[in-house]
């Protein structure tokens, strides 16, 4: 009987861990999707292009979220842990800086 209880307890712990992992994995995926959309919108606003396509847009959204949070704090709607308004403003700042650096290096539009 004790072995059966131990096996059921192990199965319960493993199932709980798998459920917890899945929820956090999907949260991470949603976080990256929101960051990509924010970066893509910032790329549309700023003349030039953020390098590396969709991967660059995700990086712009993530860095923009950090910049916006540091400069403006956390306000506005929150989606998947990203405060949209400060993240967008920060992503625009980041995309603008990347465009300036790209022009300074003589590439005109970065990685068209």
How does this structure look, described?
The protein is mainly alpha-helical. β1 (78-79) and β2 form a beta hairpin. It has a domain at 30-104. It has helices at residues 2-45, 53-72, 84-104; strands spanning 78-79, 82-83. The chain has a two-stranded antiparallel sheet. The N and C termini lie far apart (67 Å). α1 (2-45) packs across α2 (53-72), α1 packs across α3 (84-104) and α2 (53-72) packs across α3. It has three helices and two strands; from the N terminus they run ααββα.
Brief sketch in words of this structure:
The chain is mostly helical and 112 residues long.
C-alpha-based Rg, rounded:
20 Å
Described by its quaternary structure, the protein is: single chain
Tell me the β content.
under 5%
Widest β-sheet, arrangement of strands? 1-2
List low-confidence stretches.
none
Number of helical regions? 3
Order of helices and strands: HHEEH
Q: How far apart lie the N and C ends?
A: 67 Å
Shape: elongated
Overall average pLDDT: 83
């Amino acid at each position: 009987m004790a072995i059966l209880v131990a096996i059921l307890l192990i199965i319960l712990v493993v199932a709980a861990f798998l459920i917890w992992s899945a929820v956090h994995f999907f949260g991470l995926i949603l976080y990256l999707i929101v960051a990509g959309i924010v970066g893509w919108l910032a790329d549309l606003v700023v003349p030039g292009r953020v390098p590396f396509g969709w991967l660059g847009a995700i990086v712009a959204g993530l860095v923009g979220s950090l910049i916006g949070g540091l400069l403006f704090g956390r306000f506005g709607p929150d989606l998947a842990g990203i405060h949209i308004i400060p993240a967008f403003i920060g992503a625009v700042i980041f995309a603008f800086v990347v465009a300036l650096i790209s022009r300074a290096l003589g590439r005109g539009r970065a990685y068209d």
